[in-house]
Structure formats: C-alpha cells, structure tokens
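for ur thesis appendix - Dipeptide ABC transporter ATP-binding protein. copy paste whatever u need, i formatted it the way the template wanted (i think)
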Amino acid sequence: MSEYLLEVKDLKQYFPVKTGLTKTIPLKAVDGVSFNIKPGETLGLVGESGCGKTTVGRSILRIYEPTDGQVIFDGQELTKKNMRSMRKQMQMVFQDPYSSLNPRMTVEDIIGEPLDVHKMYANKKERHEKIIELMETVGLNAEHATRYAHEFSGGQRQRIGIARALAVNPKFIVCDEPVSALDVSIQAQVVNMFEDIQEKLGVAYLFIAHDLLVVHHISDRIAVMYLGKIVEIADADELNNSPIHPYTLSLLSAVPIPDPKIAKEKKRIVLSGDVPSPLNMPKGCAFRTRCQYATEQCAQECPQLTDRGNGHLVACFNK
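the 3d part is after this line
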C-alpha cells in the first residue's frame, strides 16, 4: 500500500476554445500537474486568479473529465466506471456559499441529500439524527434544520456546505477557496473549524486559496501554481521562510504585515508585464516573460520540478 491517500500524476485539463467557424485551439487550464497528499494532511494550493487552482480540484473529483493524467486515490486509479462508488470518500466545499446551496431546499434536506443518494440510513429517524449531529459538528443549532439557505449569513451557509460534505464520512475534501467570500472574523472561525474537523475525523484536505496567511496557518505543505503548472512545493514553514522560485518570492512579498515598522523595511517584489494568455502561452517557461532572472534556456525549455532537499521541489533553472 502507498503511504499517500491521493496521488496526482501529470494531470492535464484542456478546454477547446472556438477561434472560427470550425477551428478550435486548446486552453491549457492545467498542464501536467503532479502532487501527493497523505492521510490526514492538508496541502495548500495558491496562485493568482485564473492559474487553474479550482480546475485542479474539479478535475481530481471528475466534475471536469480530465484530458490526461492519473488520479490514484487510496491505491485505486479513478476512472469513469468506479467514480460513483468513490464519491463517498471524496467531497468538495465550494467557494460561493450563496450559489452552491439549493434555495428551494431546507437545511435538513441539503445536508441529507448525500445520505439519500448513498442510502446511508435505515429509517427517517436515523436520517434526522445524523443530520442534527452533522449540524452540531459545524456549529449550527438543531432548530436551523427547517430553515432555508437565504435565511442564513455567509458564514452559516458555508457551514451548511461543510456539513453536507461531511455527511458521507469522506477521507478527502477539496476546499475550493472556502473562506474567500466571508468577512475576516468569520474566516478565522471557519478555518479553525476545518482544523477541528481534521483533528476529530482525520480527513485530508486540498485547500485552495488566495490568502497566503490563511494557507500557511492551515497547511502542512504548500504548492504554488502559475498558469496551469506547479512551480514550487514545500513544507508550509519552509516555503514561508525560504522561498526559492521568483514567483513565490513575489507572492510572499505582497503579504501584508501588521507591524508598520517591519512593513516599511520590507521590500515589495513587483512583477513587470501582464500574465500571458493561456491560449497563447510563451515557449519554454511560462513565467519567463515576467522574470528578472530569465535566460535563453528559459525561452527554449520548460523547467521541471527538482528536489532542493527536504522535499522542497522547485521548477526553475536559475534559482
């Protein structure tokens, strides 16, 4: 048996984009992504908007059918045939708590839907008891069960989504920017709840987010993504203290520091130029058009992730 719960190998997700009446070109949203997650571990996935983070999560769960690559879960490769039976073990918490919940269903029916689909109760009484237990796990009161989603705040709605994901006792949850639509004070509560649930149930997370402070707080390891490729993976503390890739250095330099004295001394690394279009990617390294260290080699070939020690993987020729 592998030591990893989830193994993603050379995952690719291309979307055909029409450029004429009959002509299409591929938009390479995810282009050869590989990583592993151990049982009970949290891997943070960060990068700017449009880099393919959400697409990675959705392709792993086959919400989008991958173009190429392998996803191995619990020693078993995921295919169209066995995906339904594996759904119980892999769930997703969506970014927008407003649009991911059915406005016509009560909270009890929203949380109970996975139980209905997988027939995980013997009678109505057992179903109701399970739902109330799930609601208590995520900090909702039993009297909330008969209400509708529009009657709740953003933080409460996200808790309903988390309870729905937990209903089938999954081993792995993709958390797709679960706190980005919430107020800062509510973000802290939801992040702490994710940690409590992990401690209690031993569930593993792929935690997708923009906020590097949130990701550093919750993650065991962090992967940095740029234009469909992972450019650096390392332990959360090591990536924060000793980043190597020029893009990671720039991302971390933009993290706000609450101490004005330290913030004043800190040097921002501002990237020149714009993010290239995924429809018209530069040859070689995708980051070279914005990188101060780019050489002729970067224009000719794409760097692969190489181990710099302690499992710190970096895709760069010059750092």
